[in-house]
Amino acid sequence: MLRTFLLFLLCLLLAFPQGAFSASSGKASAQVDTGLPLNRTTFHFFSPEDIAANYKASRIIRVGYFDQHGVFEGEGEHLSGYAIALLTAVSRYTGWEYEWVKIRFDELAQRLNDGTIDLSCGISFTPERAHLYSFSKLRAGYENTCLHVSSTSDMHYMDLEAFNGMRIGFFTDSLQYDVMQRFAAQNGFTFKTLFFEESHEMSQALADGRIDGYVDGVLQGKGTKVVATISTDPFFFVTRKDDNEIMDPLNEAMRQILLNHPTYLARLYDSYLNISSDVPVVFTRSESRWLATKPVIRVAYSRDQDMMDPTQGSTFFYTFLKMLERQSGIRFIFVPQDSYDDCLRALVEGTADIMTDVYPKTSFLRSQGILCGKVFYNAPITLVGKIGKPRAPGQKCTVGFTKEMRSVRQAYQSTYPDDITKVFASSEEYRKAFEKGELDFYVWPYPGSSLWDEPPKDGVLLPTRAMYPMALGVSPQTSPYAVSVLDKVISATNTSTIDTMLLTTAPESLLSMSKRFVRRHVLESLLGVALLVGLLILFAAWRNRRRLADLRAVAFTDPVTRGPNRGKFLMDAARLLQEGERRFYLCTLNIRKLKLINRVCGLRTGDSLIRFCNREFTLRTRHGELAAYSGSGRYLLLWHCADDAEFGQRMTELFSVAEMARKLYERPVSFACGVYVIREGAEAEGADLDGDIKAGKGARDGERSVARYLLYADTAEASIASAGGYRSQFLFYNEFIGARQLKANDIENRMVRALEQGEFLVFLQPQVCLADRRLHGAEALIRWQGPDGKMIYPDEFIPLFEQNGFIRELDLLVLDTVCAWIRRRLDEGKKVPPISINQSKALFFHDNYVETVLTIAARHDVPTHLLHVEVTESMAWLDEEAFIRTLDALRRAGIGLSLDDFGKGYSSMAMLHSFGFDTIKLDRAFLDPGQDKQRSVWIIISSLVDMARRLGIEILCEGVETEEQLQKLLASHCKYGQGYLFSPPMNMETFDAYVDAHDLEQK
C-alpha cells in the first residue's frame, strides 16, 4: 500500500510539470535584466493551426555550436546538451528543423553575418556584443562561474590561499574571466591565465598538468571537483543583427514555453548543468578539520514513524541518513522518541542533534526554538475525500491529521489558511471520523507517516497545491559545521536519487507492513495471532495470485502499443506451429529511420507512428496468424500463405501502410522486412528445427526454435538495411544470405585476435615513372594471412571493417609498420622512396587524427616528406569543413596528399584546385578491359593530365597491366603509373630487394 502511495507521489510530480509546483521548484525567470536594450512589445499565441502550418512550412535553421560543457556536447549524431533539448522544445512551436554547424567562439559574429549560421545559444550579454548580434528577449538559461580542479587534488572548498598563483584555464573571450578577476581582487589573490577554444582542450590541459584548474559554467566535470562557485549569470540565444525573421518566432516560442511550463528551464538546468550524483563533495578547510575529529550526531526519531525504523534498515529516512553518513563521514546514532513532539523537545533540550523532518518555515522554527537544514525533498500533500462531494480544499473544509503530522499540517495551512485542521491520535481515529461525516478530508500518507489501510471504497484521492518541503531539524546546540557539511551533501544529491530511494525503500507488500505492525504491538496482537496469521496467508495468496496475473499481463504487453510483445509472440508462435502442417512466413519488419523521426519530430510523434503501424498491421493479420511489436520500431509477423505469390500480394498491400503514414505524419516512411519461410515437410532451411516444434518437445524448446527462425529473418532484414533505399522492401532468407552472415560473423570473431597475432601484413606496390621506369614511390596495402597460410582477400574484410570501425586499427598498423620500415632503411643508409598510405574515413575524421599521425612519425623519427596520405573524393562530402581543415594540417606538417580513385563514380572538377592535392590517382576503371579501347577514354585522360599539369598537380594512373596501355599513357603525357605491368604488391622483404635493384626518380 505504501509503495502504491510513493508511486502516486512520483506520478504527481511528473504529471504536473506545467507550474503546479512552481511555488517550490527552481525559479526559471521569464524576464531579462532591465539593463538589456531589448524590445518587449510583441506577444503571440501559437494556436494548433499555427503550429500545424509551421510544420508544413518546415524550415532548416543552421545552429552554430562550439564545445561548451553541458550546453553543447559531442558532434554529429552524438550532439546533446541543454541547448539541444531547449531548441527541440522550440521546434514544437516553430516547426523548425536544425542543421548543426561546428564553429569556434571567436568566429561567431562573422559566421552570423555571412549567413553560414542563423542562430547560436549559450552567449552571455554585454553591451559590446549587443552591437555585433541580436540577443533573445528571454533568457535561454543560466550558467555558473565555477573553479574546477582535479578530483585527486587536496584543495579545499573556497581555499583562497591555495588559489593564489594558480594557473587557471578560461574559454577565449569568456565573461567568466572578468568575474574571476574581480573575485581575485576582492579576496586578495592572483592567478595566471591560459585561454582555450574547446572544453576538451582545457580538460586535457588539466589532465596533463599544464594548468592547475579551469573555470567553466557547470557544476560537474569529467574527473574534476568544484572548489569555488563564484556567480550565476544568464545566457541567451543570438542571431545576426536585426534578424527578426528568426528572432521573433524564437522569442514567441520561448515565451510560450515559460508560460505553459514555468519550471521547464529549471528542469533542463537540473538535467544538464546542475551537479550530478557522481561529483565528489568538496569541503572547506575548517569543515575538513571538523570531520577529522570523527564527529557523532544523535538523530531523534519517533517510534510511530514507519519510514524511520533503524531495526528494519530499508526505510526511506533511515536509507537517506545512511547515504548522508557515507558521503559526509559523520557517524549517526539513533535516539528513539515516543512522538514527533518529543523529537522537537529533544532538539531544544540538546539531547539530540538533528531529527528526520521538519517544516522549514522561519515562523514555525522560531516557535519551536530550533533550526533546520537544506530542503531535501518536496512532497505533494494529497487528501482523501468522498466521491461526489462538491467542496474542494481551501473552501473552509475540515481536514484530519495525526499528531505525527505536525509539520505537514503547518505546510498545508500555509497554502489553505481558511481550512480547519483537526488532530487525531492515530490514522484509525480520523478515518472513523471521516466515515461518520465529521471530516471533509483526511491526509493521504507522506514518507514519514504511520501505517494504515487502503482508502475507503467511496473515497477519491485529491491532489492539492500544498507541498511539504522536508528538511532536517537541527538543535541550536549542534555544531554549525554539521549543518554546513550535511547541506553540501544534500545539494550534491539530485532529485532522481531521492525518487529512487522512495521507490526502493517502500515496503514490498502489505504482508511485510503487517509484520512490522505486529512487532510494534506484540501484546495487542497475541490474542488474535492465530486468526491473523490465517487471514494473512489467505490474503497473501490472493494478492500474489492477482499480482501474478498483473505481472503476466505486463510481461506479455508492449508499453507503447498496449498489444502483444516479443515474449507473447514467441509463446503463441511455438503453439501455432505445433497445431498443423501449414506453410508459414515469419517476418521481422522494421520502420526505417525511426530514430531520425524521433529526433526531428519528438518521441510523442514516433510513438504515435508506432501505434498507427501496429493497428494497421493487426488489421491485415488473419485469424490463426500473429502480429506483435518487438520494440525499437520492429514488428514480428507470422502469416499463413499458400505460396510466395500470395505472400507477395499481401506484402504489397501491407507496404501501402507506409504511404498512409507518410501522408498522415508528413514524413518519409518505409519498411524493411526480412522473411523466413517455414515450409511443410523437410525441405525448409533448418528442417531439424521444424521437427523440434512439430514433435512437441515442449513450450520452451518451441520458443527457442522460433527465436532462431527470427534470427534468420533478422539476417535477411539486415541485408536490406545495408543496401539502403527509400522504398519498402522484403527479402527472403536463403543459404547465400546465411553463409554471408556466418562468414562476416567469423571474420569479426577473428579480427582482434588476428591483429594481436600479427596475421595482418603490409604489402607494398611500386609506383614508377612511365618514361624510364625509375621508382617514384609505393603504395602500402593490407593483407590478411591466416595461421594456415591462406590469404583472405581484402574485399572480404575491408568493407566489413569499414562498417564496424575496426578499419581504424588497420590504418594505424599500416602507418606504424611503414614508419618502422622507413626508419630501418634510413639507419642502414639505404635509399627510401615516399610511401602512400590509404586512410579510411573512420580514422581521418577521428579526433586528434593529425596529432596521432605525427606522433607515430615522430616516434620512429621519420621525415614527414616520405609519407603520403591517400584519401577518396567521397570523404569530402561527409564533412567538407573538417576535410579541408585536416588536409591543411597535414600539408603544413610536410605530408604529401593524394586523391585516390579519381573518376570513380561522381567526380568534381572543383576538387582539383579546392583541396590542394599533390597527386591525383586515376581510378583503374579507366583501363578496364574494353574501356582502354575507346578513344573517348584517352581523350579524357589527356585532358585531365593537361589540366592537372597546369595546376601543378601530378597524375598517376592505377591498374596498368599491358604495354599498349603504357604507350597510350605516355602519349597522353601521363608521368606516373602503378600496376601489375611493373610489379604486383609484395611483402616488405621482397620490396627491400626491389628498391635496392631500382633507381629512384631524380627530383
Structural summary, described in words:
The protein contains 37 helices and 32 strands. Helix 12 links the parallel strand 10 and strand 11. With 1003 residues, the chain is α/β, with parallel strands linked by helices. It is 44% helix and 22% strand. The protein is globular, with a radius of gyration of 36 Å. Strands 1, 2, 3, 4, 5, 6, 7, 8 and 9 form a nine-stranded mixed sheet that branches. Strands 11-10-12-17-13-16-14-15 form an eight-stranded mixed sheet, with helices on both faces. An eight-stranded mixed β-barrel has the order 23-24-26-27-28-29-30-31, surrounded by four helices. The relative contact order is 0.05. The longest helix is centred in the middle third of the chain and has 27 residues, at 529-555.
Question: What tags apply to this protein structure?
Answer:
1003 residues, alpha/beta, nine-stranded mixed β-sheet, eight-stranded mixed β-sheet, 32 strands, disordered N terminus
